[in-house]
Amino acid sequence: MAAVTLGTETDGSILCPASLNSVVGIKPTVGLTSRAGVIPITPRQDTIGPICRTVADAVHVLDTIVGYDALDAIATMQASKYIPRGGYMQFLKKDGLRGKRIGVPNGFFNFPNGTVQQMVYEQHLSTMRKQGAIVIENLDIENLSVLLDFQNNGQLIALPAEFKLSLNSYLSNLLYSPVRSLAEIIAFNNAHPVEENMKENGQTVFLVAENTTGIGASEREAISQLNKLSANGLKKLMREHELDAIVTPNNAASSVLAIDGLPAITVPAGYGKLGVPFGLCFSGLRGYEPRLIEMAYAFEHVTMARKMPTFLP
């Protein structure tokens, strides 16, 4: 229904809706696109990217939105080194899978034998091989379960503090707003419990965040642990096996990617028994967008999995 849309992802919010609606979502390396003007959660993970009908459409948008922005100076300056001369459109190559080393990590394709997803994903791996990719299966991301547990629990230490600082900064910079801080949002919700669905939703996340006092020793330790787990996890795996990408279903790997601000592209892959779409996600290290685009575009063109949505009779 739209030629172009933008999504914002902290952990899955581009990759998940794109996969489940049979469209293409690009989650850029954190800092490749400016977050200025976007309601923040954490500057370590927040990123803005296109959700479009095709890889080419999404790449057109990516070309337009990458680059330095004085309003998000540190992150966009650091990531600007990844932007290729001549932009990203040059990587829309139909032979983009040829010679690529693609890893299939354990722990993500957990579909029972005989299910549509299991059979279709197997077929896709075979198709990629036929297109000249070297597909390496049964790879282990070191300490994956520890990493995911810590991402969930460690985030509860660092993320609330980052959220409060970021949101207060965002609100203070608005030209007009009836609220100027997280504390004022909490008070607003308490004053309008019916309109804000307080009975159903509550505001526990806000209250936990408001109770923080900035980035202290425990927050720094949690962030340091996350960085260590990421360095010894996916980053180590990709370097050891000289991978151009890993492939995973939908947004299954989003938490692993979120920790270190890593990029991904999800492409329509098929439809389940009830007609619900699913996607295949290509992801890599920071700045790997050119090769991810090559693989995603080639995969899209050889599989042509996306169908135009229709209304049921």
From TrEMBL:
Residues 2-253 form the Amidase domain. Pfam families: Amidase (PF01425). Gene3D superfamilies: Amidase signature (AS) domain. This is Amidase domain-containing protein.
